[in-house]
Amino acid sequence: MEILQIILLLAGGIVLLYYGGKYLVRGASSLALRLEMSELIVGMTIVAMGTSAPEAFVSIIASIQGSPGIAMGNVIGSNIANIGLALGLAAIIKPVLTQDTFFRREFPFMLIASITLAVITIDRHLSRFDGILFLILMAIFIVYCIRNAKNGVNNSLSDNDADILKSKYHDIVFIVLGLLGLAYGSDIFVDGATRLARILGISEFVIGLTIVALGTSLPEVTTLLVATIRGKSGIAIGTIIGSNIFNILLVLGIAGTICPFKITEESYMADITVMLVFAAIIAPLAYFGKRVARWEGILLLSGYIAYIAYIVARSHS
Fold first, then answer.
1. Is residue 134 part of a domain?
2. What is the model's pTM?
3. CA-wise closest residue to 61 among 256, 233, 255, 239
4. Can you say whether residue 158 is alpha, beta or left, with left for phi > 0 and alpha for psi between -120 and 50 degrees?
5. What's the pLDDT at 159?
6. Can you give the residue range of the structural domain that contains 241?
7. 22 assigned to some structural domain
8. What's the CA gap between 286 and 152, in Å, rounded?
9. Mean pLDDT over all residues of the chain?
10. What proportions of the chain, in percent to the nearest 5, are helix, strand and coil?
11. Residue predicted with more confidence, 288 or 58
């Protein structure tokens, strides 16, 4: 009976997270495009914040409920999934262009955020000071994006643009509905994931790396696929960079500030190393490449599948 309840909680949570993220992204993207902002900046700010909302809700609630393993595992797992799963799938369907000049300037922020997380938590502890530091860095990044919001804009928008809703009021309704779906979905999803971890005898950190990370990464996966198919490479690439930055600086910043915690998982350094490797993989694309080709997408997806297999095998050893 409890297994059935857990399945319903996980399934219901994923559904609410997916549609909540979808509505939030649709409303936020429409509102941003209405302001004629750069596609990459839209992806890195409005869309990335929308798709990172599930991670934020799940990690913050998990931290408050005394499950910091899920919070940290969710962030690391989601960042790996954003590159290995989301970008990999998108590139397999259609090569993702990386020619936007913004990508050359904004990408280092993601790499710096990832390295900062690894250095700060080398002592296996996320203090309140660390959380505040992350939030300060997040504020600096937001200010930087706002200052460059309209630089290099080359997308002229019309009233019948497919990405634009009927009015700004529709944008707000979509955003509110999305936030509500994310809030309720993340709450019941964390509940189901925690119960599952206890029954299977698997650490909450591993659950956060896999099930929770996959569930909360659905908005990123959907956004990247849709954006790539529609030829919106700027939004697709921007979403990856912005989401990974928000996951570290904003999500862990809030979680650490509210409830500092220790990292007890023995494999933590191995998992964060994998996150750094995935982040570094797209570095050559930022500076030398012009697109993420299909074969590169296959490599990214294969690497992600291999990592999941490694986690499963590790949890049973």
1. yes
2. 0.79
3. 255
4. beta
5. 44
6. 39-151+201-315
7. no
8. 17
9. 80
10. 80, 5, 20
11. 58
| Least confident span in 74-83, 98-107, 239-248 | 98-107
pLDDT at 160 > cutoff 50: no
Structural element, H or E, at residue 125: strand 125-126
Q: How far is CA 125 from CA 19, 132, 134, 256, in A?
A: 34, 14, 14, 10
Specify the pLDDT at position 113: 93
| DSSP-assigned letters across all residues of 168-222 | HHHHHHHHHHHHHHHHHHHHHHHHHHHHHHHHHT--HHHHIIIIIHHHHTHHHHH
**Would residue 109 count as lying in a domain?**
yes
Would residue 90 count as lying in a domain?
yes
Q: Which has the closest alpha carbon to 213: 108, 70, 101?
A: 70
Predicted confidence (pLDDT) at residue 285 exceeds the cutoff of 70? no
CATH number at residue 115: 1.20.1420.30
Looking at the structure of the chain, the number of domains it has is 1
122: DSSP letter: G
Spatial contact of 193 and 212, defined as CB atoms under 8 Å apart? yes
Residue 189 tokens, joined: 């999803």
